[in-house]
Amino acid sequence: MASSLTKDSVQPGTPGSGKTFFGHPRGLATLFMTEMWERFSYYGMRALLPLYLVAPAGLHLDAATATAIYSVYLSLVYLLALPGGWFADRVLGPRRTVAVAGTVIMLGHLTLALPSAGTFYAGLGLVAIGSGLLKANISTMVGHLYDGPDDPRRDGGFTIFYVGINLGAFAAPLVIGTIGQKVNWHLGFALAALGMALGLAQFLLGTRHLSPRSNVVPTPLSDREKAATLRKAALWAAVAVVFYAVVGFSGAYTLNWVMVPIIVAGLVIPVVVLARIKRDKELDPTEQSRMSAYIWFFVAAAVFWMIYDQGGSTLSIFADGRAENSIFGWHFPVSWYQSVNPVMIMAFAPVFAALWLALARRGKEPGTATKFALGLILVGASFFLFLAPLSIAEGGHKAAALWLVAIYFVQTVGELLLSPVGLSVTTKMAPAKYASQMMGVWFLAVTAGDATTGLLGVAGVNLDKMGIVALEATLAVVAGAAVWIYRNKVKQLMGDVN
């Protein structure tokens, strides 16, 4: 049942309160710390994942298979953000959904810590489920802290929240990555569980500072809908169990029997979801127009994440075997490369936030479409830059670490132009009917990008070959140019949303 909003339910740190966190609602501090610890656990495990998959002491897979597993896992995490938003909208509300999500993630990391291939894949599944429940809803709660889409603090608030993400992401490879690579892989995964436990504790202690809206179930299921949903879920679960039992007992089972359906879902579901929302006759003309504009941002983001997320797989595996992982004679674990991007985010995110605010005061802030176009062009440029270390390695030499650092730097600038802006514009343009679910739709762009990478990996395509890298780079630059050319049309479709 939905919670009611009463006069007595207004809490400190919500809009209208005098207590702030760096000029923002106090609840932002709770969400900042929760996300920081959750990202510590997530990115720590993620830094280890491709290296563990190819390591002789790990699962000892080839690079193409490892990249496919990594990409399919990321695709699943973001794919499950959509039902995670639905679950909050219809069953528990964002606040309680996040509490459940943190518990599931913690159990998933503990399962990864068990020294068995079977439990390893089960642990990945649990982390993916928990992350899907958490991702859309914690971002939605950030939006709840502000006085609607026109609150001038909103973009800055999402940027500060983004710093929390990257603070956890920066520390994770240095701690979890080092322990996992140098001491024991599974001990590293156990440290990820500890990180999530700290994040969950922070969230439970700080919920009183959140907006009362975060505890509301916007459109709760009726008893009839609950029964129908449970029947459908049970039916699909039974079909899956029977299907995989038959495949397993027949001796035909391989990992592709799991990965290929996820890849197909990751490519088809985003299209189906966007089409369903766009065709919804309950949306008014303004919402319909905004959704038309949103499709441009969605496609642009999918291309961006297809390249960007290979920083944790293609680039990491390349560094593991073909880069000189040292600076001035000081050698460091390969997982430490995953700290480069977040430390740059923390350094430059406040600069970008201040820049947007200063330009907005002068009426000169670039539009969302312009920011997206520049982000795409930069992520494409990063892969053109990747051609240099690839060429060095093909010549029989190891590439210098600074080549990889330069690639991550260019990607970081592109990310700051696209990702926090994308989060913010999603909450601004979301039709009222799809409040929490629209954040899940935004994450489906990541799903589509990573599913494309996973499809290439399953097909045996080596993503660290110069021809493939150049092709991906060209695709991103061309997509960025298209968004730039049609930016005025997109702006018109957005209406009064900036």
UniProtKB/TrEMBL annotation:
Classification via CDD domains: MFS_DtpA_like
Source domain of life: Bacteria
Region: Disordered, residue numbers: 1-21
GO annotation, cellular component aspect: plasma membrane
Keywords: Cell membrane, Membrane, Transmembrane, Transmembrane helix, Transport
GO molecular function, one term: tripeptide transmembrane transporter activity
Transmembrane segments: 43-61, 67-88, 97-114, 120-138, 159-179, 185-205, 233-252, 258-277, 289-308, 340-360, 372-393, 399-418, 439-461, 467-486
Keyword tRNA processing belongs to the record: no
Keyword tRNA processing (UniProt): no
One Gene Ontology term from the biological process aspect of the record: tripeptide transmembrane transport
Localization per Swiss-Prot or TrEMBL: Cell membrane; Membrane
Entry-linked Gene3D superfamilies: MFS general substrate transporter like domains (1.20.1250.20)
InterPro entries cross-referenced by the UniProt entry: Dipep/tripep_permease, MFS_trans_sf, MFS_Transporters, POT_fam, PTR2_symporter_CS
SUPFAM superfamilies to which the protein is assigned, alphabetical: MFS general substrate transporter
Polar residues composition bias: residue spans: 1-14
Protein's membrane topology: Multi-pass membrane protein
Principal localisation: membrane
Protein family according to the UniProt entry: Belongs to the major facilitator superfamily. Proton-dependent oligopeptide transporter (POT/PTR) (TC 2.A.17) family.
Protein name: MFS transporter
